[in-house]
Write a structure and sequence with these properties.
The chain has one domain: Transcriptional coactivator/pterin dehydratase (Gyrase A, domain 2, 2-Layer Sandwich). Helix content is about 40%, strand content about 20%. The protein contains three helices and five strands. The longest helix is centred in the middle third of the chain and has 18 residues. The relative contact order is 0.23.
């Protein structure tokens, strides 16, 4: 079964709560992005491991990048080439699993802890 793209009403209902927590709606594609800064590489990797288990269970996987203590995530459902309810659910799960990590905004430099020593 292919996931369906969010309707306009579904977007209006869901996206404000996600953007309030730091998710950014991308201008160049129908996707959302969030960047977390963790205390250490181990904390970042632990987060990614917990998310990976949730992704496997949901059969829905993020586009992500990790550099030391930074985890940069983009969510999009490739089956429908846009945002779906799967992305919303995974974003909420990731927010819960991130704990006390710092959310970096679009203007924050992506500087990992290894570069500040």
């Amino acid at each position: 079964m292919t996931a369906a793209r969010l309707t306009g009403a579904e977007r209006q209902d869901a996206l404000p709560a996600l953007t309030a927590t730091g998710w950014q709606v991308l201008a160049d594609r129908d996707a959302i992005r969030k960047v977390w800064k963790f205390r250490s590489f181990s904390d970042a990797w632990g987060f990614m491991s917990r998310v990976a288990l949730a992704c496997e269970k949901a059969n829905h996987h993020p586009e992500w990048r990790n550099v030391y203590n930074i985890v940069d995530v983009t969510l999009v459902t490739h089956d429908c080439d846009g945002l779906s309810a799967l992305d919303l659910a995974l974003a909420q799960k990731m927010d819960r699993l991130a704990g006390a990590a710092t959310v970096l905004g679009p203007d924050d430099p992506l500087v990992c802890a290894c570069q500040t020593r």
